[in-house]
Amino acid sequence: MWNESYDYDVVREIRVKTTAYIGVGAINKIDDILAQMKHEGVSSILCVSGGRSYKSTGAWDKVEAAAQKHGIALALYNRVTPNPTTDSVDEAAALGRTINAGAVICIGGGSPIDCGKSAAILLANPGKSGEDLYCFRFTPEKALPIIAINLTHGTGSEVNRFAVATVTRLNYKPAIAYDCLYPRFAIDDPALMTGLSEEQTRYVSIDAVNHVVEAATTTVSNPFAVNLAKETISLVNNWLPVALENPADLKARYGLSFAALQAGVAFDNGLLHFTHALEHPLSAVSPDLSHGLGLAVLLPAVIKECYPARPAVLAHILEPIVPGLAGVPEEADKVAKAVEQWLFGLGVTQKLQDLGVKESDVDTFCDLVEQTPSLSLLLSVAPVEGTRETVARIYLNSLRPMA
């Protein structure tokens, strides 16, 4: 696909930074990781997690045992909620300061990982707050070493330089991206993910699909991101139904974990555009909305909008779920409806109207897309111009089923 989509005389950046361990039993690598931290002089670590899964999966027992073995003190902040806020970032960082933390361990899905990453920046930049960070009042160049123990197969945050949090006071949900946010180490152990609920299993996997659809079609994408995209979609298509049927199937969880890890690397290289830019205001206003569900609701309309600009790439990467495409602009409506039917077949049938969004709300969400820091950057790399009219059309086409 690279020779059809990219000029050989254009220099493109390819990023691969984090040391990631993936496979059943990968959690045991925490012993080697903490031995390395101790060797580097780290004697205390802030641990950031949600309220339950860090403990119920057994991950915390492994972390505690390794820390005790290597003489490292731990402080646990376990109050991160889905769609983390800058208040949580500030609280986690404050706890880290009480023990003079030298590193941060994030245990959970995207929310604890993003919160922990953000706290790692604040701990290395005294006097700064979560709101300062997410309102771009400073540009961080350093963070404490970050270790990400991923408990879902969707985020990708364990292997890239991105983090997201809602600015509590403003209902803004910006994304940040700094080189200091790359985790030093990441652990993706499928055995820690078998307890995900049916809904979580769906939504996090669909998050990975959205990552690659966007990453492969931005104006700054590269061949690496495109190749990762098709493989990611194929893995999710193959293994998500298996995991829904049998949550304990470790081969399925491994396939989905690998898909999500690839997707995290893909959007680290290609960035993101419409789906994430438009979903962030939805979950900022409604924090109980699962990020993956919000993305699923928007994805068909985004594909419809972008397909005419990237027909060859989208036909290539979507082939596992929409076979036989010619890769011509005229297929846009057909492909969008086919992707919507694929999502419906996985049990994700909601549209914006089912989430309580009305046509009269579209202007408000368009305002938030324009006002939220960082979202204009996502729109700037979209394959079609990210005008207010385009954004409004995507929201309107997502209110109810297309088919």
Automatic annotation (TrEMBL):
SUPFAM superfamilies assigned: Dehydroquinate synthase-like (SSF56796)
Q: Report whether Oxidoreductase shows up as a keyword of the record.
A: yes
Q: Which Pfam families match?
A: ADH_Fe_C, Fe-ADH
The residues covered by the Fe-containing alcohol dehydrogenase-like C-terminal domain are 205-396
What CDD domains does its record include?
A: Fe-ADH-like (cd08186)
Q: Name one GO molecular function term.
A: metal ion binding
Q: Which Gene3D superfamilies match?
A: 3.40.50.1970, Dehydroquinate synthase-like - alpha domain
Q: Does the keyword Transcription apply?
A: no
Q: Which domain of life is it from?
A: Bacteria
Give start and end of each Alcohol dehydrogenase iron-type/glycerol dehydrogenase GldA domain: 19-190
Q: Which UniProt keywords apply?
A: Oxidoreductase
Q: Which PANTHER family match?
A: ALCOHOL DEHYDROGENASE, ALCOHOL DEHYDROGENASE 4
Q: Which family does it belong to?
A: Belongs to the iron-containing alcohol dehydrogenase family.
Q: What is this protein called?
A: Alcohol dehydrogenase class IV
Native source organism of the sequence: Desulfovibrio intestinalis
Q: What is the lineage of its organism?
A: Bacteria, Pseudomonadati, Thermodesulfobacteriota, Desulfovibrionia, Desulfovibrionales
